[in-house]
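User: I'm writing a short report section on ligand binding and want a predicted complex to refer to. Could you take this sequence and alpha-D-glucopyranose and write out the structure as tokens? A short remark afterwards would be nice.
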Amino acid sequence: MPLTTKLDESARALLEANTQTADLDRRRFRFTVPSVTAYPFQWFWDSCFHAIVWSRYDAERAADELRGLLAAQEPDGLIPHVVFWKGDLVSRLQWHHLESRTSGRIPFHRAPHTTAQMQPPVIAQAVERVVDAGADGFLHEALPHLERYYRYLAALRDHDVDGLISIVSQFESGLDFSPIYDEEIGARDAGPAELLARTRLPQLRNKLANYDLDTIFRRYRHHQEDVLVNAVYGQGLRALARLAGRAGREAVARWATRTADGVTEALVDRAWDEELGLFANLVGPDERRTSVKTIHGLMPLILPDLPWKTVERLASHLEDPQTFGAPFPVPSVALDEPTFTPDHRLRGFRFIWRGPLSLNTNWFLVHGLRGHGRDEIAARIAGRSREAVELGGFNEFYDPLSGRPVGAERFGWATLVVDM
Ligand code: GLC
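Assistant: Sure. The structure tokens for the complex follow:
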């Protein structure tokens, strides 16, 4: 595919510069790390986004980006949130800590070394883009993995069989320190040290349960049905249904469609908060609703079957300068929330996803809004995203008030801006 813009050229150059390789079972894997300095491993949803951008330039390279994730799939179907690949000291310190299982592949050192956590399940969407871009054969290669992965989510993550899947740590949501999680962990108004400790406690419990999901759901209350994760899950199931249909796997296609219908239904029935005009997370066995206005609440906009009235209510927040209609939209926390920070600084320390905008959530929302015919708002978000990148480079986060970059530099998924 010919390069179309200067932005495309620099996006491709960044993905290239952040590319690393690793060997496993006499195969060589290529993948793009989110940031060479801040995040030097392969992350699940980052790689899915990288594959989507790669698919614009080089379909085979895009397929390779996902092959590393598929190779790291666990026997139960989980595709882990980080693949460290190497067994060097830095990675080992990472993968022996709170986020890993102590059995199975670990610790006896056959790469890839991984965490035992999930991230928002955006891999079917990525595979679809790569197949559309012409990676011949990748559909048949990836489909069995996808089917096992989404069936794992439906079977093991929806423990109360209500159609919505649960995360067992806020770090599984992809929105690590979002204040939507503060209340559940008892960290409302907490200072930096307390916030850090409290976010890690659920992971300590998970580790004690060796990440056995049945035990975690039975024994603990810290799991929750996260709106962002479920919206991405619903969208992913629809992509899986289309891919399975193309491969002639009708039964899988029907299962995925039925399950996706159930996700939207459950979100609308149980996670909608009429007063806030947003969706809420459902926390613990009692499914207590969260009340902090964060970008999670807008994410069901990516679901094509969301009722029209709900779309209107959500879209009105994007035009409201008090909540999500920031000069540089879309802030990860509503501007009028007391926890909102424009630059992630909490008493001098940095905690991400507490205000600044990220281009992956903007990418989701831009496409979701277009799908609902809200082209004007979509164009505004895409335009401001482009401006932020032109001013500050490909960054992990931007201040939604000024547009200045406030996260890791030369950051992979910021290249999604070329696909808005
Ligand atoms: C942070 C983000 C997460 C991302 C990772 C690597 O942990 O919260 O979403 O995947 O960094 O970029």
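A remark for your report: The CA atoms of residues 80 and 118 lie 5 Å apart. The first strand starts at residue 19 and ends at 24.
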